[in-house]
């Protein structure tokens, strides 16, 4: 079963974690780095996610944040990729997991969405195992995603 997770951006949330390393920095993607991000996603995740990332990066102000270590992308998070108001996709290279990179990327995106005027964010089509990750850091309301934006996908 999959769920869309509704996040109230006006709820006073703050992900109280810091990066566990000073060798990683988080920054908003600059469009000249877009090819590097797409390559990172294709190498570490899926073609579907790479397509979603392209939708977020080919904007005047890309709606993606990246984690960088030694001038290499090691993680990313986007919003407004598949649909307006949606958070994701997001991912961190396996070698860099456990350093709170995903949590900080989530915080950056949710803050940017709030600053862009959104009252709510949707984390779309999340499996039950992943809900426990998000619920550790943010207050959310799960809603069945049986009839979600993702039902239009032709390659599931």
From TrEMBL:
InterPro entries: Acyl_CoA_acyltransferase (IPR016181), GNAT_dom (IPR000182). One of its GO terms (molecular function) is acyltransferase activity, transferring groups other than amino-acyl groups. It holds the Pfam family Acetyltransf_1. It comes from the Bacteria. Residues 24-155 form the N-acetyltransferase domain. This is N-acetyltransferase domain-containing protein. It comes from Haploplasma axanthum (Acholeplasma axanthum).
């Amino acid at each position: 079963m999959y769920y869309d997770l509704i996040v109230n951006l006006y709820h006073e949330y703050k992900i109280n974690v810091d990066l566990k390393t000073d060798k990683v920095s988080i920054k908003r993607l600059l469009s000249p780095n877009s090819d590097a991000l797409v390559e990172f996603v294709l190498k570490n995740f899926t073609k579907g996610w790479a397509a979603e990332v392209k939708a977020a990066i080919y904007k005047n102000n890309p709606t993606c944040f990246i984690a960088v270590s030694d001038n290499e992308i090691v993680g990313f998070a986007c919003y407004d990729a598949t649909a307006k108001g949606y958070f994701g996709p997001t991912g961190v290279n396996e070698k860099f997991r456990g350093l709170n990179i995903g949590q900080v990327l989530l915080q950056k995106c949710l803050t940017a969405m709030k600053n862009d005027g959104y009252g709510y964010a949707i984390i779309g089509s999340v499996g039950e195992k992943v809900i426990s990750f998000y619920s550790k850091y943010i207050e959310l309301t799960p809603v069945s995603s049986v009839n979600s934006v993702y039902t239009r996908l032709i390659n599931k």
